[in-house]
Design goal:
Its EC number is 1.1.1.271. It catalyses: GDP-beta-L-fucose + NADP(+) = GDP-4-dehydro-alpha-D-rhamnose + NADPH + H(+). This is GDP-L-fucose synthase. This protein is an alpha/beta fold and about 325 residues long. Helix content is about 45%, strand content about 15%. It has a six-stranded parallel β-sheet, sandwiched between helices. Strands 6-8-10 form a three-stranded mixed β-sheet. Helix 1 crosses helix 7, helix 4 runs parallel beside helix 5 and helix 6 crosses helix 8. The longest helix is centred in the first third of the chain and has 21 residues. It is globular and about 60 Å long. The structure holds NADPH dihydro-nicotinamide-adenine-dinucleotide phosphate (NDP) and the ligand C[C@H]1O[C@H](OP(=O)(O)OP(=O)(O)OC[C@H]2O[C@@H](n3cnc4c(=O)[nH]c(N)nc43)[C@H](O)[C@@H]2O)[C@@H](O)[C@@H](O)C1=O.
Length: about 325
C-alpha cells in the first residue's frame, strides 16, 4: 500500500479506531481522513454519500459502531441493531459507489452461536442460535459480513471482514454500567481502593470464560489484513488465551492494588459461557499477538490513571 494513500478511519476516537490511527501513523501513512461523530453522522445516508463523493477515500477501515458490554446490549437492543445496520450499510455502499479500493469491516466474536465448538472456527457462522444478551448486535454484524461478501461476489469489490475477540486498552469506555467487563472492573476496583471500600461487586457467577486481546495487537492485525488479505471469508482475531471472569477480577484486583473482598452479584447475566476464537487462519497468514493480559492490564490501568483520573481532578 502506498504510504500517501487516503485512508478513512471511521470511529477514530474510539478504542479500536484510535489504536488503528496510532498504528497507521507509526508505519508512515500520512493521509488519514478522520471525522468525529459530530462532524459526520454515519447513520445519515446523504451525509455519508456526500463525504465519500467529496473525498473519495482509497481505503476505509470501519471502526465506528454502537458498542457496549452485556448490560448495554441487553438494555438497548433497538439501538444496537438499528444504528449498526445503518452505519455499516451507508459506509459499505458509499465505499463501493465512490470507488474505494478496499474496505475492512469490523465485527465481533458474538456473531457465533452461543454453543459453538471451542475454539470457534470461522466456519461456525450461522450454525446455531445466538447468545440472547447480544443477538441484536450480532445480527447486525452478521449482516455486515454478508454485505461485504455480497459486494465482492456481485461487483468484485474488495471488502473484507475481521472478527475480533473481547478488546481492551487506551481510549476504552469506562462507563460503570454500559462498558465491557475489563474497563468496568478497572474503574470499580480503582474507586474501591480510593474510597477504602470493604468490598467490590462483580456481576454474574464468575464462571464464564473470555478471551482478551489488547487493542494495539488488534490494530496491528487490522493493518496486516488491509495490506495482505483479500478473501471472501471473515477472519478471526484473538489472543488464543482465555480466563474466567473470576480470574480476571483477581488479576484486576492485583494490578490496581486493592485489598478488600470480591462479592458476586448473581442476578446479573453471565452471557455466553465461553467464546474462544480459533485464530489459526490469521496465524497461518503470518500474524501473531504480542501483548500478554498482565502487561496489557497494567498499561491500561496506567493509561486510565494518567488520562481519566488525572483529567477528572483538574
Ligand atoms: N470493544 C470491544 O471489546 C470489541 C469491539 N469490536 C468492534 O470494533 C469496532 C470498534 O469498537 P470500539 O472501538 O470498541 O467502540 P468505541 O465505542 O470505543 O468507538 C466507536 C466509535 O464509533 C463512533 N460512532 C458511533 N456512532 C457513530 C455515528 N453514528 N457516526 C459517527 N461515528 C460514530 C463513536 O463516536 P462517539 O463516541 O462520538 O459516538 C466512537 O468513536 C466495532 O465495530 C466493534 O463492534 C469487536 C469486538 C470487541
Ligand atoms: C465484546 C462482546 O461484549 C459483549 O459480550 P460479553 O463478552 O458478555 O461482554 P462483557 O464484557 O460485558 O461481559 C463479560 C462477562 O463479564 C461479566 N461481568 C462481571 N462484572 C461485570 C461488569 O462490571 N461489567 C460488565 N460489562 N460485565 C461484567 C459479565 O456478566 C459477563 O459474564 C457483547 O454484548 C458484545 O458487545 C460483544 O461482542
Amino acid at each position: 500500500m502506498d504510504k500517501s494513500a487516503t485512508i478513512f478511519v471511521a470511529g477514530h476516537r474510539g478504542l479500536v479506531g484510535s489504536a488503528v490511527v496510532r498504528k497507521l501513523q507509526s508505519l508512515g501513512y500520512t493521509n488519514l481522513l478522520l471525522r468525529t461523530h459530530s462532524e459526520l453522522d454515519l447513520t445519515s445516508q446523504p451525509a455519508v454519500d456526500s463525504f465519500f463523493a467529496a473525498h473519495k477515500p482509497q481505503y476505509v477501515i470501519l471502526a465506528a459502531a454502537k458498542v457496549g458490554g452485556i448490560h448495554a446490549n441487553n438494555t438497548y437492543p433497538a439501538d444496537f441493531i438499528t444504528i449498526n445496520l445503518q452505519i455499516q450499510t451507508n459506509v459499505i455502499s458509499s465505499s463501493f459507489k465512490h470507488n474505494t479500493q478496499k474496505i475492512l469491516f469490523l465485527g465481533s466474536s458474538c456473531i457465533y452461536p452461543k454453543f459453538a465448538p471451542q475454539p470457534i472456527p470461522e466456519s461456525s457462522l450461522l450454525t446455531g442460535p445466538l447468545e440472547p444478551t447480544n443477538e441484536w448486535y450480532a445480527i447486525a454484524k452478521i449482516a455486515g459480513i454478508k454485505m461485504c461478501q455480497a459486494f465482492r461476489i456481485q461487483h468484485s469489490f474488495n471488502a473484507i471482514s475481521a472478527m475480533p475477540t473481547n478488546l481492551y486498552g487506551p481510549n476504552d469506555n469506562f462507563h460503570p454500567e454500559n462498558s465491557h467487563v475489563l474497563p468496568a472492573l478497572l474503574r470499580r476496583f480503582h474507586e474501591a481502593k480510593a474510597s477504602n471500600a470493604e468490598r467490590v461487586v462483580v456481576w454474574g457467577s464468575g464462571k464464564p470464560l473470555r478471551e482478551f486481546l489488547h487493542v494495539d495487537d488488534l490494530a496491528d492485525a487490522v493493518v496486516f489484513l488491509l495490506e495482505s488479505y483479500s478473501g471472501l471469508e471473515h477472519v478471526n482475531v484473538g489472543s488464543g488465551k482465555e480466563v474466567s471472569i473470576k480470574e480476571l477480577a483477581e488479576l484486576v484486583k492485583e494490578v490496581v492494588g486493592y485489598e478488600g473482598e470480591i462479592v458476586w452479584e448473581s442476578s446479573k447475566p453471565d452471557g455466553t459461557p465461553r467464546k474462544l476464537m480459533d485464530s489459526s487462519k490469521l496465524e497461518g497468514l503470518g500474524w501473531k499477538p504480542k501483548v500478554t493480559l498482565k502487561d496489557g492490564l497494567t498499561d491500561t490501568y496506567r493509561w486510565y490513571l494518567e488520562n481519566v483520573i488525572a483529567n477528572a481532578h483538574q
